[in-house]
Amino acid sequence: MSPTRPVRLALLGCGTVGTEVVRLLHEQADDLTARIGAPLEIAGIAVRRLGRDRGDLPVDPSLFTTDALGLIKRDDVDLVVEVVGGIESARTWLVEGLRAGKSVVTANKALLAEDGGTLHDAAAEGNADLYYEASVAGAIPLLRPLRESLHGDRVTAVTGIVNGTTNFILSSMATTGAGFNEALEEATELGYAEADPTADVEGFDAAAKAAILASLAFHTRVTAADVFREGMTGVTAGDMASAKEMGCTIKLLCIAQRRDDTVSVRVHPAMIPLSHPLAGVGDAFNAVFVETEAAGPLMFYGRGAGGRPTASAVLGDIVAAARNKLSGTRAPSESNYAKLRVRPIGESLTRYHISLDVAERPGVLATVAGVFAQHEVSIATVRQSGRADDAKLVIVTHSAPDAALAATVEELASLDIVRSIASVLRVEGGAG
Amino acid sequence: MSPTRPVRLALLGCGTVGTEVVRLLHEQADDLTARIGAPLEIAGIAVRRLGRDRGDLPVDPSLFTTDALGLIKRDDVDLVVEVVGGIESARTWLVEGLRAGKSVVTANKALLAEDGGTLHDAAAEGNADLYYEASVAGAIPLLRPLRESLHGDRVTAVTGIVNGTTNFILSSMATTGAGFNEALEEATELGYAEADPTADVEGFDAAAKAAILASLAFHTRVTAADVFREGMTGVTAGDMASAKEMGCTIKLLCIAQRRDDTVSVRVHPAMIPLSHPLAGVGDAFNAVFVETEAAGPLMFYGRGAGGRPTASAVLGDIVAAARNKLSGTRAPSESNYAKLRVRPIGESLTRYHISLDVAERPGVLATVAGVFAQHEVSIATVRQSGRADDAKLVIVTHSAPDAALAATVEELASLDIVRSIASVLRVEGGAG
User: Fold this and answer.
1) Which of A332, A392, B11, B130 is the most buried (most CB within 10 A)?
2) ipTM for the complex?
């Protein structure tokens, strides 16, 4: 195509993110043209229904259509920008576009995590670009560094706070001492949590992002189904208090770790030491901590959600895809050569913080310690406290397979001397 | 070139970074081949003198040469990797390579900051890539996000801790209460400071990086000569203590700020509030805080120096340049269309923290406040303390042009009632 003709894009979706994409395209038109070498033009905007009041959106109303597929197929469309979400329709649209050689920019984490392989295959087939920076950690430039900058290095672990809603809730619990329900209520009032917060608090959203991050970090296709997921609704004010006593806080983490030729990918709440860079990530912010063999620890921090931050990431991808269109080149295609095995959670190495209410009588610690030894779980620290009627044991283990830890906890629960298991939390980030 | 033939590189320099580049090329050969689609081969290594013992470096000794220019010109060299440093020779080599169409990967911040334009022009002339991720903040993937990810957004400010030596010194002063000399001594003993620490403590190193960051962030050529620079040797234990009293710490910052169509680029020590994400960046770590119109605040954190971290960044660039070679494409070329004016320091908006020893007599505050008013500098907070023979005034201003602030301080110094100006520090990051 000639460098003087505009690069034309089909925008699929005009909700929170879509409207901000339209606004930014308008506000920054001169800069974008200078950076790309040609103007960007909206060829059409696919929406679910026409006639909705779009307020002061700076766009010709005749551009709206309900025929997404028809829009994508138009000859004058160079790029497809998808900010609708959902699986089935989006997959159809994006595969159609990619196969026809139209580059795709998408923020659709659910689709990428469930079936990114199909999209990557379609991109290869159509010799088109597939960009999705906005799908993980919103505005934070994170995927491009993983896709490109760190390709001369070997990533050993990615540990992230990738869900703003749950980070807001946990930060609020840590600061105010509130319980989960109270903190959730506050998050809902402030607009940080949706009316149905399931996808956030049960870790589904974080698990999708974990799959995308693990795929990029380890050059291996990882899907949401491969990710162990445990929500954070069970984290209590008491857990947070005992984390504090240990010099820790509790975060909902997405973790992807390499060991030899396997990877562990999981989402769960975990204690991390206050000295860990992720511990200071408050409010609804996101941050991703990356460990590599040569570069050492890296951290990327910023806003993980919101229309405008997400639109910023989408626009960055649009600029890249448009430049490639003009110069007839492509971004590096999917790298999945390593094909590492994903370890089930039972094989994952992790550490537990276990709080037990026990009978106050001689020999309790010996019995409890014996259960750990029997499962080959090594104890790092024990704290005993309590009165005659309310004795407590707080045990932190060394690293061990999750299955051994789970079996230890199960057996502890069956002991007469153990009145109840007050809490079990995984411990990450070198917390002691 | 055919995808089966190796991509061959000329390595210029085999010091701390160069040897780690060689090691990583060797250790990760299989991964690099898979990611690039062809093996990487070292065509030759230019060094100052042959015959030096390179220990167990996994490389054929016949590859070493003292003829850098001859090596670059060889037909079988695709990429030139420069990790020597210095200005004159490096410029000659890189311009030669770029003009001949050989892509360049360099860590040479001094050359890029002094005369990056010449390198970019040569790259355009030879249709070659110029990558320099390792030149700023070592291993942190920072330039690629600025060069690409944020191109759909408008950067308003970049504030960075980009010199590990001075950050180690200031972190140590903040933690232990030590003075500058004591902390410098410790840094030297631990290998964080060089025998001659001038480039670090006087801010020359940070100023070079500031020029590179400002150029990328603002699409404008900014050179080291444009950067206002003030070292951190004058920061005292007393300054650090009074920062603490204000809930702040002191960091050597590189700052690039856009206002309308001008930019301010400067390096100086400054107070920042402990709540600012940069305040927690300890030891010799680097971090860069980026503010944009749409994405909101972003931070990039990691190791800024060291052979292996720097080599990781060099390798990432080598992979990108090699991929482009194989597919016959180029990275986005220099973006300098904005051509914003660089404001002199006098026009920069900043805030001052001024500590005065004053005579203890009525009317002192009124006189001092009058001087501020006369220069149209608005006072944010005043603290008065002291005994009859040792009264102190600590004043923090609102934002004002640096020239007005400097003139205010000069006039204060000339007042009879001002016994001495104990310290003057700029205040950044919203500190109050």
Assistant:
1) B11
2) 0.92
